[in-house]
Automatic annotation (TrEMBL):
Catalytic activity: cytidine(1402) in 16S rRNA + S-adenosyl-L-methionine = N(4)-methylcytidine(1402) in 16S rRNA + S-adenosyl-L-homocysteine + H(+)
Protein name: Ribosomal RNA small subunit methyltransferase H
Pfam families attached to this UniProt entry: Methyltransf_5 (PF01795)
Species annotation: Ileibacterium valens
InterPro entries for this protein: RsmH, SAM-dep_MeTrfase_MraW_recog, SAM-dependent_MTases_sf
Amino acid sequence: MKHVSVLLDESIDMLNIKNDGIYVDCTLGRGGHSEQILKRCPQGHLYAFDLDQNAIEESRPRLEAISDNFTLVHEPFENLASVLDRYGVDQVDGILMDLGVSSPQFDDASRGFSYRFDARLDMRMNQEADLDAWKVVNTYSQEELTRIFREYGEDPFASKIARKICEIRTEKPINTTFELVDVIRSALPPAVLRKKGHPAKQIFQALRIEVNQELAQLQKVLDDGLKRLAPGGRMAVITFHSLEDRMVKKTFAKAALPPKTDKRLPQMGIENLEYHLVNRKPVQASDEELEENQRAHSAKLRGIERHEIKGENRS
């Protein structure tokens, strides 16, 4: 199955790429966004991160066909600042993030990301990592499971599902995705099972976020990335669920919008804000893209730009 990058044209346009700019793709995947960035900065350089070594090796020939002005980094994108320091890069002209699990990872049954395929519970984006979904499901306490199901999955039956998991695993480990789906189903009332949508979707999302520490990493790279943007530089972020989108929206608003005050009082310091929002409302997929790519339904694109403050000395 061919991987189709979500909101490809919209995100590339949002970066406003310069011919000689320096760019970072925090989520290389199969190279769709990185390919378009390289095409637009023939005299610049691209740094592309991915935890999945398979993604790096599959993307390399695609990028080499365009240019050799790129560096592939097999590290978590939360290491953005230290990696740029290693290469002597102080500021960049653009940062792109396409969050979530790539379609090839979902479609590879052996990776254990999807409730659609039976496989060992895994869900590691970095297959060299120690923590996987099996360990979370079979070793976390009932209280810990309830917390991650509630916080990361926003599942109203978090406590019931956590309790059922702990009951079942006293008899035998829960080894596979289908075994976990059966346990989740057994914890839910019939009325919920009759509803549209897969009953395990939110629990699988929660496990994936916990295994890969996605939200903690995202907050760090947002904070570090904003500091690394050069004047005129932009950050564009594509999210796929509400937890990510709220984090991006809140972080961008904190940087680009004045704090809320009494509207009857004079607004002070607005002109000195260092960033501004590229778009107030998130960009979503067109009807044409939705017809071709179902994964785009939940995608939201937000952007922010750094501008120079008058009188500031950037040496």
